[in-house]
Amino acid sequence: MIGGLFIYNHKGEVLISRVYRDDIGRNAVDAFRVNVIHARQQVRSPVTNIARTSFFHVKRSNIWLAAVTKQNVNAAMVFEFLYKMCDVMTAYFGKISEENIKNNFVLIYELLDEILDFGYPQNSETGALKTFITQQGIKGQTKEEQSQITSQVTGQIGWRREGIKYRRNELFLDVLESVNLLMSPQGQVLSAHVSGRVVMKSYLSGMPECKFGMNDKIVIDKQGKGGASDDAGKSDLGGGSGKQSIAIDDCTFHQCVRLSKFDSERSISFIPPDGEYELMRYRTTKDIILPFRVIPLVREVGRTKLEVKVVIKSNFKPSLLAQKIEVRIPTPLNTSGVQVICMKGKAKYKASENAIVWKIKRMAGMKESQISAEIELLPTNDKKKWARPPISMNFEVPFAPSGLKVRYLKVFESKLNYSDHDVIKWVRYIGRSGIYETRC
Amino acid sequence: MTDSKYFTTNKKGEIFELKAELNNEKKEKRKEAVKKVIAAMTVGKDVRYTFSDVSCTQDCEDPNPLIRALAVRTMGCIRVDKITEYLCEPLRKCLKDEDPYVRKTAAVCVAKLHDINAQMVEDQGFLDSLRDLIADSNPMVVANAVAALSEISESHPNSNLLDLNPQNINKLLTALNECTEWGQTFILDCLSNYNPKDEREAQSICERVTPRLSHANSAVVLSAVKVLMKFLELLPKDSDYYNTLLKKLSPPLVTLLSGEPEVQYVALRNINLIVQKRPEILKQEIKVFFVKYNDPIYVKLEKLDIMIRLASQANIAQVLAELKEYATEVDVDFVRKAVRAIGRCAIKVEQSAERCVSTLLDLIQTKVNYVVQEAIVVIRDIFRKYPNKYESIIATLCENLDSLDEPDARAAMIWIVGEYAERIDNADELLESFLEGFHDESTQVQLTLLTAIVKLFLKKPSETQELVQQVLSLATQDSDNPDLRDRGYIYWRLLSTDPVTAKEVVLSEKPLISEETDLIEPTLLDELICHIGSLASVYHKPPSAFVEGSHGIHRKHLPVQHSSIDTGESPVSGGPAAAMDQPHVIPSQGDLLGDLLNLDLGPPVNVPQVSSMQMGAVDLLGGGLDSLLGGDLGGGVGGSPAVGQNFIPSSVPNTFAPSPTPAPPATSSGLNDLFELSTGMAITTGGYAVPKAVWLPAVKAKGLEISGTFSRRQGHMYMDMTFTNKALQHMTDFAIQFNKNSFGVIPTSPLPVHTPLMPNQSIEISLPLNTIGPVMKMDPLNNLQVAVKNSIDVFYFSVLIPLNVFFVEDGKMERQVFLATWKDIPNENELQYQIKDCHLNADTVSGKLQNNNIYTIAKRNVEGQDMLYQSLKLTNGIWILAELRIQPGNPNYTLSLKCRAPEVSQYVYQMYDSVLKN
What we know:
The complex is a heterodimer of chains A (440) and B (918).
Chain A: E1 4-8, E2 14-19, H1 27-37, E3 47-50, E4 53-60, E5 63-69, H2 75-93, H3 98-103, H4 105-115, E6 116-117, E7 120-121, H5 126-132, H6 143-154, E8 170-183, E9 189-203, E10 209-214, H7 217-226, E11 250-253, H8 259-265, E12 268-270, E13 275-284, E14 292-301, E15 305-314, E16 321-330, E17 335-342, E18 346-350, E19 355-364, E20 368-377, E21 391-397, E22 406-412, E23 424-438
Parallel strand pairs in A: 8-23
Antiparallel strand pairs in A: 1-2, 1-5, 3-4, 4-5, 6-7, 8-9, 9-13, 10-12, 10-22, 11-13, 14-15, 15-20, 16-19, 16-21, 17-20, 18-19, 21-23
Chain B: H1 14-22, H2 27-42, H3 65-77, H4 81-95, H5 100-116, H6 118-123, H7 126-133, H8 139-154, H9 166-176, H10 181-191, H11 199-209, H12 218-232, H13 240-256, H14 261-277, H15 297-310, H16 316-326, H17 332-348, H18 353-365, H19 369-385, H20 394-399, H21 407-419, H22 427-435, H23 443-459, H24 465-476, H25 482-497, H26 499-506, H27 522-529, H28 535-539, H29 575-580, H30 589-601, H31 612-621, H32 625-629, H33 641-646, H34 670-682, E1 693-696, E2 704-713, E3 716-725, E4 735-738, E5 746-747, E6 762-770, E7 783-789, E8 794-800, H35 815-824, E9 831-835, H36 842-851, E10 855-862, E11 865-873, E12 879-886, E13 893-899, H37 905-916
Antiparallel strand pairs in B: 1-2, 2-3, 3-6, 4-7, 5-6, 7-8, 9-13, 10-11, 11-12, 12-13
Helix pairs in contact in B: 1-2, 3-4, 3-5, 4-5, 5-8, 7-8, 8-10, 9-10, 10-12, 11-12, 12-13, 14-15, 14-27, 15-17, 16-17, 17-18, 17-19, 18-19, 19-21, 21-23, 22-23, 23-24, 23-25, 23-26, 24-25, 25-26, 25-31, 30-34
């Protein structure tokens, strides 16, 4: 298991050093500093073995976190633990910085004692930890309160404490997707996928049981046999085709979701943590709505001139607006001057980035816009042709390019007197560009 | 208020002050002081003397469970042997505490105590208490107990400390659904050490583990993958569930690649193993391993490795386009690896070789120094795989000669020049230019240069005599390196003794290099599969390589399907797949030694026509060798054994080893027999060979009697013959020729009989064969017509080749392919035979047949009969599929053969019959 944990600042000075095992000597702290932090070369691996001691490290801004061991530990677990530790620290005192760490070092040691016992990761859910690791001390708790804490920390629902109360039961659901594309100059899709996340902010009283439903093909097909699906009549929120269901390649869930239930019934049921967390991640590759189509036209006029015309077409409902649109058109290294004309937005040649950057603040669906540029080239005797890097795009659209739709999110709390209808629910879809490229 | 001020105090007498403050009556002051002590410890100051003042007054009897737990946790941290005895009673209480938080903390405390005083923990029965906790009602208590027991058992002589039985497994699986992500990881890691008793149990565990593949925590996912990968071994490969499970493994592995870079790295290192073990899982997913421009370098390098492993004819175009892209990146290591990858693609996917070569040429044109050098190294390997195919590019390579400054690249270029010396006009000038700074070169370059110049000399003897003399003297006289000297002497003696043999040895056809490189050795791979997710899987090393002391003393093995392999055997299945990965087995050292000795010890060589080459060689002897060889070598050879032994190379240099023995020992001298003895150990047992039969009786051949047989050894076919001279005069000038035949069999080398065959003498000859000759269908199919010539006459005879010499080593079909092919071949092609009077069990049968390259792909038990499904492939690419039915108690087996060319079936059946009965 984990033998020790060190936190360093960017200079390699130790901020936190917690050793759990005897086999980790004091020189381990220095070994990592000398061999990794002060190494001349760029870091070549997140796992380093120095004199039969293994160091796992992650970096957050300019702070190094390193876990040390001499055993054959579960490597994935060590990294997941380090990430988790960062989350916990952020939840307690905000950004992970040298100052914040120094200001909270007693708290950090206390946390490290609790979430790592003899190097074994223990419950590290912030919701639970905050009930009993405070800087105020835990005096004055009643016996019930104490046993409530211990049963929560060790229990099945370690991520939520009992007795949460809100006057207004509210939840916010964000479907955040990033759409990735590689397209040939002729408009053929070479590869496309969406990686999405469902992020939830819940402010609910008690221990609510939630059930989340989306237009997952497998579920819809199952229900289709039994009766008419309930969203058949609803208008679609997105701008794309009116398809009813989507095929999800793979998804992963927050630990609150009952996985065995998902495996057998494909239903997503859970008792949510309080506040913000990521309910699920998913990936789709089929029937993706590509919000923009880029049509490039590059013409070489002699050896010293290049004419570029790029048309972008928005491919979603006219009532929706895309924002923060940016098209990046690469230019050859020997560019001497560029003249641009665009119908909409602003375009600029950025010599330092070897690209023309065209920005449009807003654009409605089913529109098109065009930019043309004349690029003057310096004559060179370089035989190698310009490799023509792809044209890339950035944007944000108010729908999910995967076609994912939230069908319901039901809340049941049997002990308290509020029902599903009393919960105010907000759903938002945001589609962003990932790596969205068109070859030219 | 900030706490950072505690880090800034740095006064003299600090410890003294701290001690005073710790004993201050004000609580606030004491609290401050404790913080200062902790801060001082963090920065590495020695504050031991204050410890006695930080008193630990917490009590295990406190009504607050948090305090009780804190007490038991702290107790374990007092790592002083003497104190531990006082901890036993409170710990025992805490293990049975009513509060789960206290119990889960106590469970870990047992592990702490075990680390200090293992004997005491056992004597006090704490291990039993831990085992009891596996049945605890609280999932976290279960998880911690499992974690503690797992760690203790790693260093414990009784590896089954956890007492994993079906009841306990069931408890673990129940807790798995309820505990924290870390607890799930502990439990899954523990489950992976369990060996289910049968496939049904394995399947039911797998069914309960698969939901974990959707967990957001990558450690849970990887540990679940480990359990599934291990238990897959136990599932019947043709079952639906097996295939469903394989399909389920791919998406979660792909998803791991969208995590944070460090986890991606761990995942990729593991995927690298999984792809080698079960390539079918990810073969469709190559695109996800394409490198993104902002991936950290360690992710890029790993992705590249996996891309090459997944490269196939289907995706090679995409892969090449990507690799070409990568070769223009900035990171030198990455670019080099990308260039190397292009070469590996060429070697792996033959259809792409041409495209790869032209891509490499494009890269060479960029003139980026390290790209050029890396490209030349891989082009050498491409030449070794596809000889005489791309030599048109040599001119381009030669243009870059001056820019090569790395030993690898220089050696590669020299090798190419030597190998293709006859086609490079100025090969001698090129090699000579390297010779100038001979002693400054690395050993690798020196050795290659020596070989290259010898090759050049053998190809163009007239112009390069001086050069070869120069390099030989540089290597033997001016160098201290034993390898270089030895190799120099070997060449020198070879050249001076018998230039014709020298030519055969040095310029012989070399075995092609194998397709897959960098594969992890199969037993290690199987062990690493048992360590998926752990550091061992990241390092690709067994834990013993990086873990000190007693931890991890138990080596892990993949479980073995109980039905098919006897329990007595080693549990790790190296498998035939392992052996097949290296189809070109290097001839054993013994062979080579025997061979070289033969040159010294054999009678004088009779070369019919004196070539200019030999003249050159005789000239050479005027040099330094005379004194070494005792002076009389130039004429008759036959140096005394004592002298000869001086020249047995102390080690056979690397580049020498891969060349096959062109002429096996042809003498029957006593010394040679001695070497045969040592040789025997190195040769792996080959397939079944029919005992030698007389092919040509002496009465029909004017006194020459030939008896022989065919055999297949280490992937090569041989015609093993005994020539006996029963006439009264000696015989010379032997030669052999084959008529066109069904399989295109021709001898690889001339008949290795160089010495006259004296009356009443016999010699053993092993004639290597290959199947690249002209083909003509014979009747019977395996008929071979042979003509043997000697100084007396020409004799003809015909023999039947037992079909098993044509069974190639890579005749193992993939299971799915087998099923598809079996269905695909029309039923009228199926022929049935009876193998009578055979009393072997199914496993022995498989083993015997496997030695003859008949591979068992699946075994099923249907109504008490064993059904073996087998495949084999002939040298001409014909596949034969077989179903062998063995009924217990019935000595007659039924063999059904399916083949697209059913005419061979009869001969295959004959082979089955003879193999099984011998």
